[in-house]
């Protein structure tokens, strides 16, 4: 199964949620007028696209309909796809790994799928011929290191680890040293799950960032926030909170295959102006791909 087919299948619950409502409103209206657009806006809001993003989509759609004299149902759908795509196209979703080595720091709250995402990204980078090192800097949870070891082995990546309770920043320091020694292309740093209101955890993250900034000065760096898509509107608040605490450069969206709330992806990107870098739609090691706005828009509409 190609990734678009996986994406389409994974987003089927979201598509059913938005698509059935959209089809109903289109079939019930004889013409594309203001009443129709108001109904459409309500559907988008109810489908977790958020008020601000839904209003922007409908306002732009209104202009597009008037400019192109759109009347046909399928043309309306296509225009809607293009408006959803444009939300993401305003942001640069490409992964910035321009130096050797480059660093990817992965953050997020507990239970969103950070460790799994790291394994999948490592696997993807390895398939591109890159040598990858993983830093197991979640030393608060013994199971986290064990789980990461499994994913590192599956993806063929090197792993740097220490015993539970060790200083996470020292793990990162050692991992940077090893990355340089073996001539690896990318270092991926795992971190403990943290809430933005837990000051000691955020301070720990700041310490890790200082080590990375000092030891990899001038090198490409991505700070990727992992978000569980099934949390819907709560995901937007998580992004805003982490954005205040750290320089998030992109998002990894997980668990899209198990939710009807995939529309929240539009709200997350649109309201926070942070690009989606990776999207996960399954449990297998190859069920993660670089985000493609056109494929996403087609998959949900």
In brief, what are we looking at here?
The protein is α/β, with parallel strands linked by helices. It is built from 12 helices and 8 strands.
Q: Specify the number of helices.
A: 12
- Computed structural class: alpha/beta
- Range of helix content: 40-55%
Record the strand order, biggest sheet.
3-2-4-1-5-6-7-8
Rg from Cα: 21 Å
Oligomer: single chain
If you average the pLDDT, what whole number results? 86
The SSE order reads: HHHHHEHEHEHEHEHEHEEH
Proportion of residues in extended strands:
5-15%
Q: How would you characterize the largest beta sheet? A: 8 strands, mixed
Strand count: 8
Distance between the termini: 20 Å
